[in-house]
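Subject: two folds for Thursday's group meeting

Dear M.,

Sorry for the delay on this. The cluster queue was jammed most of the week, so I only got both jobs back this morning. I'm pasting them in the order they finished. Each block is the input sequence followed by the predicted structure tokens. Could you check whether the formatting survives your parser before we put anything on slides? The first protein is the one we discussed after the seminar.
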Amino acid sequence: MKKLSRKLRNEEDKNLSLPVHDGDSRPLDPQEQEELVRSLERSQAQQSRLWRRVFAALFFCYIVFLMYSIVNQASSPWELRYHAYFMEEIYSWMIISADWVAVLACSFAIIGLLHESMHRRRWIHYSWYTGVILAIFWLYYMLRYSY
């Protein structure tokens, strides 16, 4: 019985293990290695561009939502539930201004994601700093509202 289980286990291990060598089992020469590295770099750059565009599109959708929020707050204040929570705590123009700052932060992020230069990270940092200031603003009023 033990022999049979060992034999089955060895057969399963052979099917699950990765091959140690391919058919010709020779190492790649430097030119082939460089070609392989270049193809992997091209693939990585293409995937990076794709994902940056996807996140830029998500930021754009959020900007559209913020614009809707701004228009609603300007035309009929306190109609939106997520703004109405702050009715007694904050003026309407402050909410509209905070939404415009959020639009600015998202715009910085989109520029940073889609801009193909060495200043791309700088735009992302601008977006992050603006977002932190905005988060502190909202956190202050949310904590003030909860007490």
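Second protein, same layout:
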Amino acid sequence: MRTASPPCPQATVADTAAPRVAAGCNTYQHNWDDLRRMVGYLRGAYAKNLGDPHWEEFIVELCSESLNFKALWARNDVAVPVSPTKQVRNLAVGELEMFLTSMSLPSVPHAWMQIYTPTDGVAWVKLRELLAMSVEERQRPWAEHREQFHLEVG
């Protein structure tokens, strides 16, 4: 008899609004204000691409896959990216509070990038610890997590 794995403790409210995120795991902690703002960013980018069938299809797909996204999209909020802080989860070193800086890349149409920078000494120490680990040390906690919460047990 096969039974499902226990629910993933890393699941966040964002998982229901982002159907492309692997079942329940999300490295970033979001709250509804974050989600509302992210959908607002998407609407701002969408406004620059009105009539583009790829964008239209993408929005329809997101709305059909997520009731939460559909509700947020229906609000018609438009937002401009700011530099908030984000809590980044890492199973090897714990949570890191990071500044998030977003910017467009003028030489590449529709491209933008995000830079995560530690907010304080504690986050810098954890980041340096993570960077000093071998690939195996960084990946081991994730492998254990997947085994415990995402693989079906026989």
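Two things I noticed about the second structure. The first helix runs from residue 14 to 17. The chain has two domains: 31-80, 81-154.

Cheers,
T.
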